[in-house]
Amino acid sequence: MVAAIVALGVTRALSFEGEPPAARSGAGSAAVAGAGQGEAVPDRVVEGPERVGEYRLLAGEDPMKGKKRPRGKQWYYDRDGDGAPDLMLGIDAVEWDPSLAAEKGKDTLDQELRNFFAGAKAQDVTPFDAGPWGGKLSCGTLAASGAQPVLCAWTDSETFGSVLLGGGGDLAGAAKTALAFRTAAEKRG
After folding, report:
1. pTM score, two decimals?
2. How much of the chain exceeds pLDDT 90, in percent?
3. CB 42 within 8 Å of CB 188
4. Containing H/E element for 152?
5. What is the mean pLDDT of residues 55-84?
6. Are the CB atoms for 59 and 78 separated by under 8 Å?
7. DSSP string covering 75-111, please?
């Protein structure tokens, strides 16, 4: 009996306050599509939208060319028409990244966000509603000389995404923008 209690305590401690690993969280577009774990769901398409609100997808040379790239896929958007990136959308999905699937099998949603924002050295990280796809969404500010960029990230059982907004703004407004990009980028067929 004591061994069972100790094992339960260790399991709870390793699962970040009793939260299940992200892959088993039941939060993601498969769950929203009405499928249970292991059931067939319509194919998912994750693609950077051409336009979201006042942001337009930039075509041409990749701003990350020659630099260390983040995991997953990235898209860059212009807001003010000057042709320079004002927003970066990054999405990584278990369909195309086996290492993300492995991480989601061991880390919780909270651990994923905590590690991401710690690595980015974000400040004032605040949780927000993750919208219709579920999971968790948080935003924080990054240190900069001048207007502080705002970084938002979401995670669910299948996806990790982020939006980086240059030039300041409030966290709540950035969360709404991130949610609009998430909703536009992920579709079930």
Report:
1. 0.79
2. 54
3. yes
4. strand 150-155
5. 81
6. no
7. EEEESSSSSS-SEEEEEEETTT-HHHHHHHTTS-HHH
Task: State both tokens at 30.
Answer: 């498969």
Beta-bridge partner residues of 110? none
Distance CA 186, CA 182 (A): 6
Q: How many angstroms separate the CA atoms of 158 and 28, rounded?
A: 6
73-128 residue pLDDT tens: 999 999 999 999 999 999 999 988 999 989 999 999 999 999 999 999 999 999 99
Mean per-residue pLDDT for 144-150? 86
Mean pLDDT over 63-72 rounds to 66
Q: Are 113 and 153 in contact (CB under 8 A)?
A: yes
Match 């939006």 to its residue by tokens.
163
Structure tokens at 86: 């004002």
Task: Give the whole-angstrom CA distance, residue 45 versus residue 138.
Answer: 23
Q: In which residue are the tokens 């260790």 written?
A: 10
What's the CA dihedral at 119, 50, 28, 20 to 10 degrees? Answer: 0
Distance in angstroms (rounded) separating the CA atoms of residues 186 and 30: 11
Encoded amino acid at 71, one letter: R
Structure tokens at 13: 């401690």
Token output for 177: 């923008």
| Maximal CA-CA distance, the chain | 67
How many alpha carbons fall within 13 Å on the CB side of residue 111? 19
